[in-house]
Each structure stands twice: as C-alpha cells, then as structure tokens.
From TrEMBL:
<dbReference type="InterPro" id="IPR036291">
    <property type="entry name" value="NAD(P)-bd_dom_sf"/>
</dbReference>
<dbReference type="Pfam" id="PF01370">
    <property type="entry name" value="Epimerase"/>
</dbReference>
<dbReference type="InterPro" id="IPR001509">
    <property type="entry name" value="Epimerase_deHydtase"/>
</dbReference>
<protein>
    <submittedName>
        <fullName>NAD-dependent dehydratase</fullName>
    </submittedName>
</protein>
<feature type="domain" description="NAD-dependent epimerase/dehydratase">
    <location>
        <begin position="3"/>
        <end position="235"/>
    </location>
</feature>
<dbReference type="InterPro" id="IPR050177">
    <property type="entry name" value="Lipid_A_modif_metabolic_enz"/>
</dbReference>
C-alpha cells in the first residue's frame, strides 16, 4: 500500500516508517521538522520526506495514497499547557483538516494516533473504549476534539480508525527523554540516580514504540468492517506497571540508587486501561515487548552512544526544543514554522 505518514520525523515515526517499509509498504512522510537534528542515531532517510505543516495540506497532495497514518501533533501535556490554543490548532483542527483533505482526495483509510490521555480522570477500574472522556489537560482534550471531528467524516468511502496509545517507551533515532521509562533510564545514565517525582505508587499503561507500529500495521491491513470508525486502546496488560516497579528495574540494570524528589508524594494520575478489544479484533497485533526488555534496550543504546546531560535535559525534551524554536522566532505562536530549524550534526 502507498501510505502517507505525518509526523514521520518524530519519536514514533522514525521507528514506524522502517517497520512499514519492512512489511512491503511504500511510505511518504509529511513533517514540519521541529525535531530535525535532535538525533539519537541516524533517522531513516530512504523514502520521500515532505516538509510542511499538516494544516496547509491540500487534496492534491494526498492523491494516490491508500491510507494516511496521522502522527503529527504537539505530543505531550507540558507543551499543551504552555500553549493550549496552538495545541488545539495542531492536534484537533489540524487532524480534522488532514482527514478532510484525505477524504476529498479519495484516500479510503485514515489511522489517527490518539492517546489514552483522553480518558483523563477515569475513576476506578480499567477503562475500555466506550468509557466517557474526562480529559484533564489541553493535550487530552485536543485528542477528544480530533476524534469527534474526524468521526463526523466517516462514511462508505472513508474509514477513520482511532488508535489510543498508552504511554510509549523504547529507543528511537528521534529519542524522547520526557516519557517515564526513557526518563528514568536516562536519569540513571546521566546523573547516576533513578529520581522519582512521586512516591512511585501510580499505575501506568505503557507500550513499546515497535508494538505501536505493530498496531498501526494491523489496522492498516485489517478488513474494513473490523476497523471502520472504531477506537482501539493500544497496549497490553503485561505492560501496565507501577512507576516504582520501573524505577526498581532501572536501578537493578544500571546499579544506580532510587531517589525521591523533595516533597514526592502520591501522584493523582493513576489509571488503568482495558486492552481486550484490540487483542480480540486485531489478532495481528501481537505485542512483543515488555518494560524490562525495553529498559535493557534503552540502557544499552544510551551507554553505547554516550547520552549527554544536554541531550537528556534539553535536546530530547519536546517542550525545551519547542521553546527554543519559539524563542528564536522559528516557530510562531500558533506553532507554524517560519524557518527551518538548525540541523545539529550528531557524532
Ligand atoms: N509518545 C507517546 O507516549 C504517545 C502516547 C500516546 C499518543 N501519542 C501520539 O502519537 C503521535 C506521535 O507521538 P511522538 O511521541 O512520535 O511525538 P513527537 O513529538 O516525537 O513527533 C511529532 C512529530 O510531528 C511533527 N509535527 C508537529 N506538528 C506538526 C504540524 N503542524 N505539521 C507537520 N508536522 C508536525 C513534529 O515535527 C514531529 O516530528 C502524536 O500524535 C502523539 O500525540 C504518543
């Protein structure tokens, strides 16, 4: 299949693109390039990469594609909290615009990268796809708005799918240091301690980025009646773990102590997710990773490459990079690029 992947130059995209290519698909990327040069390895380059903003996409840009995988977004709560209106512009309006032009161009399938964070304050018990949404951040709210707007476009010719990912982990050429498993492992490598901001009691649903890629691949090729306008939680029960368990495993692998930030207490973001639907409906999604193996992978890559404090604290932190692009005038207040970012050569 010929697939347009937006956000192909980000953390998940840099792993998903080669994964799709290995499965025989022809991939074209579309990305604004916010993290160009923020490299933790050589990002894939052996495919057509278009530089542009999804909010400017036109139907003629999407002609001839069999599917769109829409990853491009303001990808976390801290940026969303900093600039909520831009988060809605990119994540909600931009996603719905992308779906509209895809439909106009006759693209039959649209895979939207959503998030379990749209469930928000979900209460007790694991949340399934039909749970109510109680997002607690602009980021979570932006995913709710995007799903609603895209869903209104579903018809006989256009099948959107909402893949609600758990929090990702794993090594990528465009590594992120601001997500929990990567962060705790990177803290051990660069600071010699596994520093917890809470008492470590909360439960977190996690998923390796290669398993996210597996879920998208399964949704790409599944029969239409199984996926048409359907939402799927993406993750697995074995990867729903307490932060404390992640920290203890990182400490074991790196021989660094677990420490607690001043005032570390209970964290109210504590929720669990039900993954039975994706397992039942998309049997090709068979997760192959686990958090302990992911920590081994991250630790090996971080030590082999010599992860620096600057990379860990700034270059691989999405909020820090977006702030720098804004401060230097290369991103405007609505997060439109005004100039290409400086590309920093990696050793
Ligand atoms: N990483 C996670 O833990 C996680 C969990 C759940 C959902 N998701 C979702 O998966 C998707 C990808 O996440 P990620 O971790 O790879 O994020 P990322 O920040 O690493 O990558 C996002 C990419 O999108 C691009 N982009 C942003 N706005 C754009 C625009 N307006 N036009 C074109 N390109 C634009 C950026 O340049 C970047 O390359 C996002 O939609 C995110 O919300 C991620």
């Amino acid at each position: 299949m010929r697939v347009l992947v937006t956000g192909d130059r980000g953390y998940i995209g840099a792993v998903l693109v080669p994964f799709f290519q290995a499965a025989g698909h022809d991939v074209v990327g579309l990305d604004a390039g916010w993290y160009d040069g923020c490299d933790f390895g050589a990002p894939p380059t052996d495919y057509e990469q278009r530089t542009g903003d999804v909010r400017d996409a036109r139907p003629e840009d999407l002609e001839g594609f069999d599917a769109v995988v829409h990853l491009a977004a303001v990808s976390n709560d801290p940026i969303g909290d900093l600039i909520a209106s831009a988060t809605y512009s990119v994540n909600a309006d931009g996603a719905v615009h992308m779906a509209q032009v895809a439909k106009q161009a006759g693209v039959p399938r649209f895979l939207f990268s959503s998030s379990c964070s749209l469930y928000g304050a979900a209460g007790d018990g694991p949340v399934a796809e039909d749970a109510d949404f109680h997002p607690v951040t602009p980021y979570g709210e932006s995913k709710v708005r995007a799903e609603a707007g895209i869903s209104a476009l579903a018809d006989d010719t256009f099948s959107p799918v909402y893949l609600r990912n758990a929090t990702a982990y794993g090594s990528s050429p465009r590594l992120r240091a601001d997500i929990v498993v990567n962060n705790l492992t990177g803290a051990a490598v660069t600071r010699g301690e596994v520093r917890l901001q809470s008492d470590g009691s909360p439960w977190r649903p996690l998923v390796h980025i290669e398993d996210i890629s597996r879920a998208f691949l399964a949704a790409l090729t599944a029969d239409r009646d199984k996926i048409h306008n359907q939402a799927f939680n993406v993750g697995c029960d074995a990867d729903v773990v307490q932060i404390r368990t992640i920290a203890e495993r990182v400490a074991e692998v790196t021989s660094c102590p677990v420490t607690f930030a001043e005032g570390a207490g209970p964290d109210k973001r504590d929720y669990q997710v039900d993954f039975s639907k994706i397992t039942a409906v998309l049997p090709d999604f068979a997760p192959q990773w686990s958090v302990p193996r992911g920590i081994d992978e991250l630790y090996a890559d971080m030590t082999e490459r010599g992860l620096s404090s600057d990379e860990f604290e700034r270059r691989f932190v999405r909020l820090a990079q977006v702030r720098e692009l804004m401060d230097s005038g290369r991103l405007d207040e609505q997060l439109h690029m005004t100039a290409a970012p400086d590309v920093v050569a990696t050793p």
